[in-house]
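quick one, 226 residues, struct below
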Amino acid sequence: MDNEQILDDLHAAIVDGDPEAAAAVAQTGLTAGLAPLDIINQAAMPALKTIGEGYEAGEMFLPDLMMSARAMEGAMRILQPALTSSGVVRETAGTVVLGTVKGDIHEIGKNLVGLLLSVNGFAVHDLGVDVSAARFADKAVEVHADIVGVSALLTTTMPGQKAVIEALAAAGLRPNVKVMIGGAPVTGAWATEIGADAYAEDAIAAVEIARKLVGAAPTEGAEAAR
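---
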């Protein structure tokens, strides 16, 4: 199997949402002598672009997106150790602290956002679920975060997003640390009301907005994904 075929097969495995095939093809690529960073840049990342375009066009849906994310995760389990051992450092787009607010244990959407941010070059520090506002702020200080991503999947826990912004302000981190919020009941209007910098409707939008936030000057109000 030639190198081009290996890259094509990995692209297809990720788009098709096949974690086992993605991991196997990634290993085949390494065995064939392909550099892990080349495999990521020439196959995995283009696959994510294909997925994003399909999702935006209404040709792929959330379950497809989640399966493709798992396939990407399968490939990265093989590629990341090889990348680390090679000594090659991927360019970091920015540092993100991510978590679900206190009192909320939903994490599927958050995990998907974290994975997509990670494979798109962001250093992601996922705090998990049921995270206090103080813990968000402490971690942001510790890792010199560029962005804090705050998820809430219940209307009753949405105020926790405002609490995180207040904790970041109290720690002297605003407005240099951007805040992006999301979750099923969350809206752009809510983001504006609480002083968040951005609202992401879904994981694909979160990546694009994160890129803009990292390169943008401090702004007032919220930037909606749609």
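The chain has a mean pLDDT of 90.
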